[in-house]
Amino acid sequence: MRSLFTLFLVSVIFPAYAQRPKTVFSCTTVRGNQVKVESIGNSYRYSFGKRGQRPLLVFSQSKRQVIAQSPRGTGIMRFRWHAMVMENKGYRYRAYTVIDSATEAVWTGVSVWNRRKNMIRDEECSKRYPIIDDMDEPFGGNAYGSADGMPFYDYLKD
């Protein structure tokens, strides 16, 4: 009886100590895919798949690595953005939000780059569904010129 009570206490107490994921980016794309990036302890977890189904792709990477490989920009420019880049098996996945300061147009989505540093997929988030962009400070910046304001190639040189 005592061991049963101890087991009960452990099962009630320890889940409270487990780190709960915090969603820092989430959306449903215009193609019906769910994209989510969660902060869990010292890492980020990326998941991608059809909305309402089990994700097709899930992987984690340390926060230090994600910050190091994500683009940055400084100065006052036309485009303000948040972008985080995660890498898995030679592919880079960039979750982004871009705001055009002149028109206040907003683009949010995810793009995928291959080993040859070519963008192979870009999916914009659908405005019909909730969008979460709660990225931390290291993922912000400014840019000028490119079609969506993102400095596409500077972080792909590695």
Rounded radius of gyration (Å): 18 Å
DSSP summary: helix tally:
2
What's the overall average pLDDT, rounded? 80
Give the topology string: H per helix, E per strand. HEEEEHEEEEEE
Helix/strand structural class: mainly beta
> What summary fits the major beta sheet?
5 strands, antiparallel
- Proportion of residues in extended strands: 35-45%
Shape: globular
Number of strands: 10
Strand order of the largest sheet: 4-3-2-1-9
Would you identify the regions where 5 or more consecutive residues have pLDDT less than 50? 144-158
Keywords: Signal
Signal peptide: 1-18
Characterization of this structure:
This protein is mainly beta and 158 residues long. The chain has two helices and ten strands; from the N terminus they run αββββαββββββ. A hairpin with a 6-residue loop joins β3 (43-50) and β4 (57-62). The radius of gyration is 18 Å and the shape is globular. The protein starts with a helix and ends in a 15-residue tail after the last strand. The model is unreliable at 144-158 (pLDDT under 50).
